[in-house]
Design goal:
Blueprint: E1 29-30, E2 36-38, E3 41-42, H1 43-50, E4 54-58, H2 59-72, E5 77-81, H3 88-96, E6 100-103, H4 106-114, E7 122-124, H5 131-140, E8 144-147, H6 150-159, E9 166-173, E10 195-196, H7 201-210, E11 215-221, H8 232-252, E12 258-260, H9 278-295, E13 302-305, H10 309-312, E14 316-328, E15 331-336, H11 345-349, E16 356-358, E17 366-372, E18 381-389, E19 397-401, E20 422-426, E21 429-434, H12 439-445
Parallel strand pairs: 4-20, 5-6, 5-13, 6-7, 7-8, 8-9, 9-10, 9-11, 11-12, 12-13, 15-17
Antiparallel strand pairs: 1-2, 2-3, 4-14, 14-15, 14-19, 16-19, 17-18, 20-21
Helix pairs in contact: 4-5, 8-9
Length: 449
Amino acid sequence: MSASLTAPQVPSSAPHPADGLSVWPRSTRPGSAGDLTVAGVSLAETAGRFGTPVYVLDEAEVRARCRTYRSAFPEADVVYAAKAFLCRAMAHWVREEGLGLDVCSAGELMLAVTTGFPPGKIVLHGNAKSPEDLDAAVRLGVGRIVLDSASEIARLAAIVPHGSRQRVMLRVVPGVAAGGHAKVRTGTDDQKFGLSVTDGSARHAVARVLGQPRLELVGLHCHIGSQITTVKPYVAAVRRMVGLLARIREQHGLELPQLNIGGGHGIAYRPGEESLDVRRLATRVRAELRDGCAELKLTAPRLTIEPGRAVVGPAGVCVYRVLAVKRTGPHTFVAVDGGMSDNPRPALYGVRYAPRLIGRHSTAAPHLVTVVGRHCEAGDVLAEKVPLPEDVRPGDLLAVPVAGAYHLSMASGYNLVGRPPVVAVKDGTARTLVRRESLDDMNRRDIGL
């Protein structure tokens, strides 16, 4: 875990890398009989109480990561990217920690607002917003809507009430390639997001927005990718965005007051992997923005960043129960009671995790196994080449760290298994945030013949 995502003083009792717990929530401690505790709560007892699979979320870890961002970017707007994971409690936590919220749909927006999140601190964006998304955003008074295409400009302007003005930003493709996988690199012209600087569509869109009296252009937005672990791509993106801000001033006599550089901050999923140094990012981005604007005699815009994964990912743990162990030639497959329906990321992006046996102590030698899910897909693989004790057996519990982001938010109803619950842990207590999806829940949606 990067020091940039820890509190300024890490307690001496924090997990030591030698324990294999460096990517777990900082409150994680070895328990009795091979168990682990998170925030003072036994993972094995949690699995017994709430059933498996179960997602455990460390509230203090989420809050500490929010504070780290507020500390690193004190003069910026820090906006939590809800697509990583959203529930009512999560919206409440990030609001209390002083963050805004970035949503991508009317559904995310309504959940946040009905939880009491101030609409003015919410940003709506997405590459293909539905009429319902835009209507809800305007009606509820979101702070900013990020326009992603030329067609959205007139569509949004048409629904803004007469005499009102909606604050908007334009999502720009800066031509910077970054990200942990080809499917999450969004800063170049060969993907679906934003308006290109290269072909002039971004500058053309600026002119169109300025021609709409019901829209107020307050800034530019870019998001270059996800799971980025180095600072350099962000510095390059800021440099190009500042250049575009200067061209807008030359063409329209307007200095835009805001610049949103998105998120995508990488985290470590396994011990030894790199994560983005957030404090170094803040230092380098501020310097590039300050120096670039000074060179071009621009007033430096107010910065916005949108962390999602880096706030909630390391705060989550998923606990599965082993259903079967199958040895086929040189391969050992350990099948658990969840899989791609609650975590599609390995199938989508090839991400690798470090599952751990919990709930009993084993003296058996470690053996490399493949942890697979219960679904009828050969690609339903949660983790490959995982060292687990040779005596791993049905009924055992496996815990997977760094499970807070893009698991349940991307979960599906495949095989009608039902989505797991989310349990918050804090100060030795556990409580349900999101209950388990039942067969009755799923059956009620099926109207019948």
